Amino acid sequence: MRGANVIIAARNIKAANEAKQTILKNNDNAKIDVLKLDLSSLNSVNAFVHTFKALDLPLNIFINNAGVMFCPYQLSQDGI
């Protein structure tokens, strides 16, 4: 999609900003925002939704590339 606004939703903001810079090196016209999103925290999800809605951008495509293997047992920030 030419001219699309890309939102990088990430738990690791440093890595997301590095990805953004890599994209911008190859396409300086790219419109990219990095937003914090930790899917293990409902507070983080709610904050992300609030921030995304405030941008007033359409959501045309959603790609979920989150995967974790062999995690030790732990509770989320929400206690679940």
Can you describe this structure?
This protein has 80 residues and is α+β, with helices and mostly antiparallel strands. α1 links the parallel β1 and β2. Strands 1-2 form a two-stranded parallel sheet. Helices cover 35% and strands 15% of the residues. It contains 2 helices and 2 strands; from the N terminus they run βαβα. It is globular.
> Separation of termini?
38 Å
Order of helices and strands: EHEH
Number of helices: 2
Mean pLDDT: 91
Query: Going across the major beta sheet, what is the strand order?
Result: 1-2
**Radius of gyration, Cα only, in angstroms?**
14 Å
The assembly state of the depicted protein chains is: single chain
What does the largest sheet look like? Answer: 2 strands, parallel
Helix content percent band: 25-40%
Total beta-strand segments = 2
Globally, the shape reads globular
SSE inventory with pairings:
Layout: E1 5-10, H1 13-26, E2 31-36, H2 42-55
Parallel strand pairs: 1-2
How would you concisely characterize the structure shown here?
The protein is an alpha+beta fold. It has helices at residues 13-26, 42-55, and strands at residues 5-10, 31-36.
Features:
single chain, 80 residues, alpha+beta, two-stranded parallel ribbon, 2 helices, 35% helix, 15% strand
